[in-house]
Design brief:
mainly beta; Ubiquitin-like (UB roll); five-stranded mixed beta sheet
Amino acid sequence: MSETETCSISVNGQHRRVPAGTTVAGLVQEIGLNPARVAVERNLEIVPRSTLAQVQVEDGDDYEIVHFVGGG
């Protein structure tokens, strides 16, 4: 086993590798978005915003992340 394990995932249709143990909130922040302003779908199921910091990314996951933009 290598020192740094990674997971291979898809985010909005694009392949990405992230460190094993990354949370969904960490993934969202790595992309440059605010976890409080996104909706996340993981493997066709909505991830409740209140659990983003607890749910860990797993190898093979498929994510769709939509961010909300304020304005008027």
